[in-house]
Specification:
By secondary structure, the chain is an alpha+beta fold. It has one domain: Aminopeptidase, CATH 3.40.630.30. The protein has six helices and ten strands, in the order ββαααββαβαβαββββ. Residues 204-211 have low confidence and may be disordered. Coenzyme A (COA) binds at residues 35, 109-111, 116-122, 142, 144, 149-151, 153-154, 157.
């Protein structure tokens, strides 16, 4: 499904199943490898691992998988989200801090270096915010590298809050070693309860949207 078409010819598409991903998965894997091999992440993924990551997200209920595509199948960017409950490590880190069943996790974002600085990154964030079910989810959450980079500024500009909570992520690095790096959680309110009291039927009463 085409979400939008930019004047520069790049299309933002939403894919919803591993079958729909078939024409793009090799190009997605190349982009994923390139983007996360750079500082501050320095991660090494094999193409099969990157493709398996995409397949896993696409098999997660309520996923939002957006690809920025140039030409027929060239993936120049991606933005992926899933419910926080579907990621046990995220759910564990956020317990007591955010309402985990009502939090949506923006899991992956990347734009090829050659396509950066043209609004694609913020578009891939904004479009996912639009597509989240605002009746069910009150918060969005994500992790950025604790080593300050441009993504932190981008999320601050988009009204995300730095919640001052850090976590360690284990990954294989480009030098072949497995090590941990620090990530910072950021979150954003999508809708909020009108009062601390529940409504007649006990359900939260959302109003307004943060996106
Ligand atoms: C973060 C990332 C997705 C941004 O992609 P992008 O397409 O360049 O993003 P945008 O063009 O929408 O720019 C978003 C903001 O980034 C900042 N930015 C963009 N280009 C920049 C540059 N050359 N120098 C400094 N800041 C820059 C600006 O704050 C910009 O907002 P503005 O356009 O309102 O000024 C991209 O740099 C990337 O893939 N980085 C590596 C992977 C990563 O860090 N992912 C995020 C993990 S959570």
């Amino acid at each position: 499904m085409i979400v939008l078409e930019r004047p520069d010819g790049i299309r933002i598409i939403r894919i919803s199943s591993p079958e729909e991903a078939l024409p793009y998965k090799a190009s997605f894997a190349g982009a994923y490898q390139d983007i996360f091999s750079e500082p501050p992440y320095n991660e090494r993924y094999f193409p099969s691992e990157a493709q398996a990551i995409l397949r896993r997200y696409l098999s997660t209920p309520e996923n939002i998988c957006l690809l920025a595509v140039r030409g027929r199948t060239k993936v120049v960017g991606f933005g992926i989200g899933v419910p926080a409950m579907s990621k046990p490590d995220i759910a564990r880190d956020l317990r007591g801090l955010l309402p985990v069943p009502h939090s949506y996790y923006l899991a992956e974002l990347g734009v090829l270096e050659s396509a950066r600085g043209q609004g694609l990154g913020s578009m891939l964030v904004g479009q996912r915010l639009e597509l989240i079910d605002h009746q069910k989810y009150t918060h969005v959450v994500l992790r950025v590298s604790a080593v300050r980079n441009r993504s932190y500024d981008m999320y601050m500009d988009m009204d995300f809050d730095d919640i001052g909570v850090y976590t360690e992520v284990h990954s294989r690095r480009t030098d072949g070693r497995v090590s941990t790096d620090r990530r910072l959680f950021m979150s954003k309110l999508l809708s909020r309860r009108k009062s601390a009291l529940p409504t007649d039927d006990g359900s939260p009463e959302p109003f307004g949207t943060g996106s």
